[in-house]
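Form 7-S
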Amino acid sequence: MTEITRDVVIIGAGASGLTAATDLKARGLSVAVLEARDRVGGRLWTDTIEGAMLEIGGQWVSPDQTALIETLENLKLDTFSRYREGESIYIGRDGKHTRYSGDRFPVDAETAAEMDRLIVILDELAESVGATEPWAHPRAQELDSITWQAWLEENTDNIEARDNIGLFVAEAMLTKPRHAFSALQAILMAASAGSFSNLVDEDFILDKRVIGGLQQVPLRLAENLGDDVFLNQPVRRLEYTDDSVTAIADGITVKAQYAIMAVPPNLYSRVDYQPPLPRLKHQMHQHMSLGLVIKVHAVYETPFWREDGLSGTVFSPYQLVHEAYDNTNHEDPRGTLVGFVSDQHADKVFMQDAEARKAAILDSLAAYYGEKAQNPVVYYESDWGSEEWTRGAYATSFDMGGLARYGAMQSTPVGPIYWSSSDLAAEGFQHVDGAIRVGHDTAQAIIARHESK
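Output:
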């Protein structure tokens, strides 16, 4: 067993942990980053599958993600715009397949008016509640005690309007059923994106991608840190006092003044803390869980939908694949579609064998794009639920009542132990931008504490 001494030990080599390590090292503190996997990146992962480069994890960059954009500039990484020329497709409650242009679904006038009205209400709530301290809002307890589904039912009788507005948070973001989280959690999701209007605007929130894949962010950060990053080192135990901590991993022990748990909250309990964490921390961690989504990659010889005047963007709360996009790589002659199967729909198809699941998903894609979608040359499913060191996607959220009850303490350090991940972000919640923001903030908190000694 190797034993080393550092000022700070960081558990997790994702974007948040590596950002914190970079900031700390730049201010003269020594660091060691311990990563359980055989790679860096956490929920960012770009890989080559059967000759196709696929972004298995996070991938998009939006204009409001200034922390991520600054990091991309510092690392000299270039972006390209998502393909969006042509018409989109919507499949309604009646099963009708409709091509449309613009940012409004082609629903009947009454449904469109109800959707617009709900978006205005949610924009106002998102602005009022805010992303920084939603638990402190005067209506926090009220909004955290009603499910997202029940809130929608209270605010409109229009089923298709409910289903579409509900999709933007449940299936598309938190990847949990609408009855499984609160209206307050949904409003936080909108506030973290700047507004509900931003959340429903795919051309805003899914604006650009990084040439070569977004995993290049953690890869380059880790490269700059050099020998301070240790792979295949799951941390099993943290022994701590008020001003010191020892991290014990499979092949290395790190003695440090501070520790950063830079992993999603559902993994906190994988570590044995001595002494045990405070009672409320234990309770809080049991109320935070990841959702479940299958990210489907289908690569074709050509982007055939473009020839038919389609952008590749499709939506339907009534399809197995609730949304899909043209995800063709930069300057790649082949065409790639990326689609998503979320929460209970994912549960259902995971009960099937791989071939039956593939057939069901391709049938859903074909409902949008036609029979050509049935024949990809490469097909791959990103299944983060089976990843030992993630266990779901995209990020953790609280169950009913948890955000108002525990939110204020989710980032509070315990002695020398700090917490850092996109799951804890205000702006950029559950996105790479949020991971980077929290990484910067965590590093600054440790630097301030260290310099005050």
